[in-house]
Amino acid sequence: MRKVTVKNNCNKEEGETGGQDEGEYEGEPVVQVQVPDVAQQYLEDARAVVIGANLAVGEITYEYDSQVPEGYVISQHPAAGEVVNQATPVNLVVSKGARSCGCDRLAAVETGDMFLGLLGLIVLVVVTLCVQGGMLR
C-alpha cells in the first residue's frame, strides 16, 4: 500500500517562507489483477491476453494431447479467475497435438515397392525350403 505523510509548517517565524511540503512514500502500491482464461487459445493469442492483463508469460512447456490441436494452450498456472499481483508469471502448457503411432510412415511406401518386397520374401522362403528338403544340390 502507498503511504503519504505531509508535514505542515505551522510554526513559522516572521520572515520565514514555508518550503514545500514533504512527502514520504513506502514502496509501490500493490496492484492485483484477475488471471484470464487462456486455455484452448492459440499460443500467440494467449500471450497477448496474458500481457494485456498486466501479467507476465512464464514457463511454456509442451505436451502431447489428442484433444487439443497443436499450438493451442492445454492448461495454465495460476488458474483462470485467481487474483494475483500484477506482473505475476502465468505458466502455459501447450499441445504438441496427438502422439504419432508411426503409422504415418507407411503412407509413404508405394504399392509397387510393397509388392516387390513381398515377392522377394516369397522367393527367399521357397529357396530355403527347397535347400532344406534336398531338392536343390
What's the topology here?
Elements: E1 32-34, H1 43-52, E2 56-63, E3 73-77, E4 83-85, E5 89-95, H2 111-133
Number of strands: 5
Strand order of the largest sheet: 2-5-3
Number of helical stretches of at least 4 residues: 2
Helix/strand order, N-terminal first: EHEEEEH
Rg value = 36 Å
Mean pLDDT: 83
| Low-pLDDT regions | 1-8
Distance between the termini: 99 Å
Strand content: 15-25%
CATH topology call of the largest domain: Trypsin Inhibitor V, Chain A
**Tertiary shape:** rod-shaped
User: How many domains?
Assistant: 2
> What level of helicity do the residues show?
10-25%
| CATH class membership of the largest domain | Alpha Beta
Query: Which class do the helix and strand fractions yield?
Result: alpha+beta
CATH architecture of the largest domain: 2-Layer Sandwich
Biggest β-sheet description: 3 strands, mixed
Structural summary, described in words:
The protein is α+β, with helices and mostly antiparallel strands and 137 residues long. The chain has helices at 43-52, 111-133, and strands spanning 32-34, 56-63, 73-77, 83-85, 89-95. It is rod-shaped and about 100 Å long. The protein has 2 domains: 32-106, 2-Layer Sandwich (Trypsin Inhibitor V, Chain A), CATH 3.30.10; 107-137. Residues 1-8 have low confidence and may be disordered. The protein is 24% helix and 19% strand.
